[in-house]
Amino acid sequence: MGFLGPNGAGKTTTIQMLLGVLTPTSGEIFYFGKEFQSSREKILENVNFSSTYTNLPWELTVKENLTYLSYLYQIKNRRQRIEKIVKIFRLEKLLNQQLQELSSGQLTRVNLAKALINFPKILLLDEPTASLDPEAASYIRHFLLKQRQQFKVSIIFTSHNMAEVEEVCDRVIFINHGKIIDDDTPQNLARKIETCHVELNVADGLKRTIEFCREQKINYKLEGRYIIVDLKEKEIPQFLQTLMEKGVSYDQIAIDKPTLEDYFLLTAKKTYENQ
Amino acid sequence: MKINRIYALFLRYFFYFRHSLDRMSDAFYWPTMDLLLWGLTSVYFRQYLPKGSAVVLMIVSGIVFWLLVWRGQYEITVNLLEELWNRNLVNLFVSPLTLWEWAAAVLLVGLIKGIVSFVFASLVAFLLYKVNLFTYSFSFLPLVGLLIINGWWVGFLVAGVIFRYGTKFQTLAWTGVTILSPFSAIYYPLSILPLWAQKVAALIPTSYLFEAGREVISTGVLDWQKVLTSLILSFIYLILSLIWLKKSFDYILAKKGLVKVF
Question: What is the pLDDT of residue A143?
Answer without folding.
Answer: 80
